[in-house]
């Protein structure tokens, strides 16, 4: 208790009194600490009045918490909806306005994308995690409970959208009045449409000078067959017409079909790991009710837990005594292990078993990469960080892996490159982990022709997620590569350039449709490998930023693939093996050799960096010989100083990885693998 007491000093009497109040309220120590840290942060900003406002809000919320009676909200007065749209069309901004209008947060200029809570979301300005908030809205004398889920817009996080949709009966489909329908608008529309949800089209950003709400409504009618009159024009930024959105949510979205008389049944649609409280599960109650103290069971593991805490998010956690049919909230039930809280699991009362809900279709990883701790002694801590983060992001697949150069690690599967980058950034920021990520690859398939290998694998068709295990042509009758159906939406003046770009990426055109008099939607079949790295960047720059792109899985097709080795003075480097299409082998080999040349320091002898296909060398770079004389700056003959420098040099060598007789600094080696640059 020492730390909070020290921080009381200088904060003024009213605050001390409040903190003491807080203690008599039997608030948990952890909350007291976190409150105090927040106070310190506020004090840092030298804003004492705001501290008092903050604390009074905290404590009034505390007393208010016990007041919410969830039974006040019968199923007919509940609306569960998601906000979906293309990237940057204003989902999080509209969520802010809805939170303000319903009093969940105060109206201030500082409320910007409050549901984007993660550091990575704030830094990148994008939503990567769906977030829930419960709003109370009074309409024609009735109080409604509106459960809002703000979702990400980027294609790599579409799994979050599809999961959120499972807890909803309706969606707000937002379209930017300036940009019109974009590729992810189409993809997200179909997710909601196929789930038979009520769709409320919203034309946002009508305050912009170039806004064309009329034109955008025509597009909505043409592409989605939704009558123009159903669209609501708003400016989420200025709050124009947002009140009407609330009314239409109540009028157009049906209440959930759940019944309070049924036995309790809830779907776990998201989970996070809290260091102090264990697993915090987001649940949608599909029937019955659950109270604090109830003994519940998980359908997945069959384990029994006691419910310690229940509540709703407003958007911060707000404990309640129970959750009833149709409601969405969080639950803490003493689950300490990450594997205990499977997303898609069904929870029910121990005494009243029920038929489990269908759960979720597992996400299909599109991109795989090896991940290793920078220092092997951190393996265990990294393992627990990866486990906890994958609990919160169930679309990541994990398999153990090991490599000569990088030690023990994992092979992780992601939905795309941005997803992979965000996952790494979250590992670093939220778990303080330092990792090495290897060259990403897509999952190839091979049809084996060798009876011996078929016996070994137990099947004829195998999937390869590690290029080092790519089987040789001599034992394979056919290689297959994953394909995707890409949707491109662009102003028609860029069609020619985009067609050439697609051809260069081995794409085949499937169809083309004008969505209004100047914008066109094109569908192309692409090899996945051709779109994951830099296709979108090229498309953006060719179309002056106006083109948008989205893709969905489209099975596998035969392809002429080959394994490319990288050699250092004739010795192969296992971690740099890549699988490439035969037509692209030369350019890929050349690029990799050039990058490696820049990453390896010159040594006492010449080093040949080569790309090889089988025994054939297809590209080569040479690193010239050089000797770093560490004693060069050491004038005079002080032997102890010389010894010190030589010792330091020897220590530096420990950080080297020997490939044949070539020393490759671990960092340099990693930099090549990271493939950050093109
Ligand atoms: N002028 C104007 N700008 C808006 C409006 N609504 C949102 N914006 C701006 O558009 C940008 C993107 O808004 P967000 O709310 O983050 O968009 P989003 O759809 O949540 O973005 P992602 O989560 O990354 O997909 C921000 O700079 C907002 O300030 C609006 O009505 N008018």
- For the largest sheet, list the strands in their spatial order: 11-10-16-7-8-15-12-13
| Share of β-strand residues | 25-35%
Gross morphology is globular
The first-level CATH class name of the largest domain: Alpha Beta
Task: Detail the topology: elements first, then pairings.
Blueprint: H1 2-8, H2 13-24, H3 29-44, H4 48-65, E1 78-85, H5 91-101, H6 119-124, E2 131-139, E3 142-150, H7 158-165, E4 170-176, H8 183-194, E5 198-204, H9 213-224, E6 232-233, H10 242-252, E7 265-274, E8 278-287, E9 289-291, E10 295-298, E11 304-306, E12 309-313, E13 317-319, E14 322-324, E15 328-332, E16 346-349, E17 367-373, H11 379-392, E18 397-403, E19 407-414, H12 417-431, E20 435-437, E21 444-448, H13 451-457, E22 461-464, E23 476-491, H14 495-504, E24 508-514, E25 519-527, H15 528-531, H16 535-542, E26 548-558, E27 561-568, E28 571-572, E29 578-581, H17 585-599, E30 607-613, E31 616-623, H18 639-654, E32 656-659, E33 662-665, H19 666-674
Residues 85, 87-93, 113, 126-127, 152-153, 204-205, 207-208, 235-237 line the site of guanosine-5'-triphosphate.
Function: Promotes mitochondrial protein synthesis. May act as a fidelity factor of the translation reaction, by catalyzing a one-codon backward translocation of tRNAs on improperly translocated ribosomes. Binds to mitochondrial ribosomes in a GTP-dependent manner.
Domain Tr-type G: 76-257
InterPro entries: EF-4, EFG_III/V, EFG_V-like, EFTu-like_2, G_TR_CS, LepA_C_sf, LepA_CTD, LepA_IV
């Amino acid at each position: 208790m020492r730390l909070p007491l020290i921080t009381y000093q200088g904060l003024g009497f009213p605050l001390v009194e409040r903190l003491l109040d807080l203690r008599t309220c039997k608030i948990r120590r952890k909350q007291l600490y976190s409150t105090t840290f927040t106070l310190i942060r506020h004090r840092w900003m030298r804003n004492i009045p705001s501290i008092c406002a903050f604390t009074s809000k905290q404590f009034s919320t505390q007393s208010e918490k016990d007041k919410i009676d969830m039974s006040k909200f019968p199923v007919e007065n509940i609306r569960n909806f998601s906000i979906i749209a293309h990237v940057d069309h204003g989902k999080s901004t509209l969520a802010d306005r809805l939170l303000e209008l319903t009093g969940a947060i105060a109206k201030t200029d500082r409320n910007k994308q409050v549901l984007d809570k993660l550091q990575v979301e704030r830094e990148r300005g994008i939503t990567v995690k769906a977030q829930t908030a419960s709003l109370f809205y009074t309409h024609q004398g009735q109080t409604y409970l509106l459960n809002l889920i703000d979702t990400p817009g980027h294609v790599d996080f579409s799994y979050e959208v599809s999961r959120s949709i499972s807890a909803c009966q309706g969606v707000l489909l937002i379209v930017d009045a300036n940009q019109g329908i974009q590729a992810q608008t189409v993809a997200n529309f179909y997710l909601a449409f196929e789930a038979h949800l009520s769709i409320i089209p919203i034309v946002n950003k009508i305050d912009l000078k170039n806004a064309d709400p009329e034109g955008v409504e025509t597009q909505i009618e043409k592409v989605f067959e939704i009558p123009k009159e159903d669209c609501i024009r708003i400016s989420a930024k200025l709050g124009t017409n947002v009140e009407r959105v609330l009314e239409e949510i109540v009028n157009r979205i049906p209440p959930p079909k759940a019944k309070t008389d049924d036995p309790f049944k809830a779907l776990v649609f998201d989970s996070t790991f809290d260091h102090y409280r264990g697993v915090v599960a987001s649940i949608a109650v599909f029937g019955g009710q659950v109270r604090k103290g109830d003994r519940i069971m998980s359908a997945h593991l069959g384990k029994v837990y006691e419910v310690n805490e229940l509540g709703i998010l407003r958007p911060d956690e707000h404990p309640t005594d129970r959750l009833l049919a149709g409601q969405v909230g969080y639950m803490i039930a003493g689950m300490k292990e990450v594997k205990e809280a499977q997303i898609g699991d069904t929870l029910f009362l121990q005494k009243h078993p029920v038929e489990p809900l269908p759960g979720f279709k597992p996400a299909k990883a599109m991109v795989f990469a090896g991940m290793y701790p920078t220092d092997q002694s951190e393996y265990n801590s990294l393992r627990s960080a990866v486990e906890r983060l994958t609990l919160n992001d169930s679309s990541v697949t994990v398999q153990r892996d090991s490599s000569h150069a990088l030690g023990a690690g994992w092979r992780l599967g992601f939905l795309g490159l941005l997803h992979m980058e965000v996952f790494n950034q979250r590992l670093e920021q939220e778990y303080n982990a330092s990792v090495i990520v290897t060259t990403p690859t897509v999952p190839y398939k091979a049809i084996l022709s060798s009876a011996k290998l078929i016996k070994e694998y137990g099947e004829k068709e195998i999937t390869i997620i590690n290029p080092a295990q790519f089987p040789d042509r001599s034992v394979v009758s056919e290689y297959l590569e994953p394909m995707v159906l890409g949707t491109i939406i662009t102003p028609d003046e860029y069609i020619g350039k985009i067609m050439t770009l697609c051809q260069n990426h081995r794409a085949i055109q499937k169809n083309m449709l004008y969505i209004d008099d100047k914008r066109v939607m094109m569908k192309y079949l692409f090899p996945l490998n051709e779109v994951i790295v830099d296709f979108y960047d090229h498309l953006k720059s060719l179309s002056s930023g106006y083109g948008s792109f989205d893709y969905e899985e489209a099975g596998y097709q035969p392809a002429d693939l080959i394994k490319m080795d990288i050699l250092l003075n004739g010795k192969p480097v296992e971690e740099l093996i890549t699988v490439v299409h035969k037509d692209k082998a030369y350019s890929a080999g050349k690029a990799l050799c050039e990058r490696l040349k820049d990453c390896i320091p010159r040594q006492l002898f010449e080093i040949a960096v080569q790309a090889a296909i089988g025994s054939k060398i297809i590209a080569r770079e040479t690193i010239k010989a050089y000797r770093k004389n560490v004693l060069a700056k050491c004038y005079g003959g002080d032997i102890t100083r010389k010894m010190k420098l030589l010792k330091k040099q020897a220590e530096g060598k420990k950080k080297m990885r020997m490939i044949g007789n070539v020393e490759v600094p671990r960092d340099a080696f990693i930099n090549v693998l990271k493939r950050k640059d093109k």
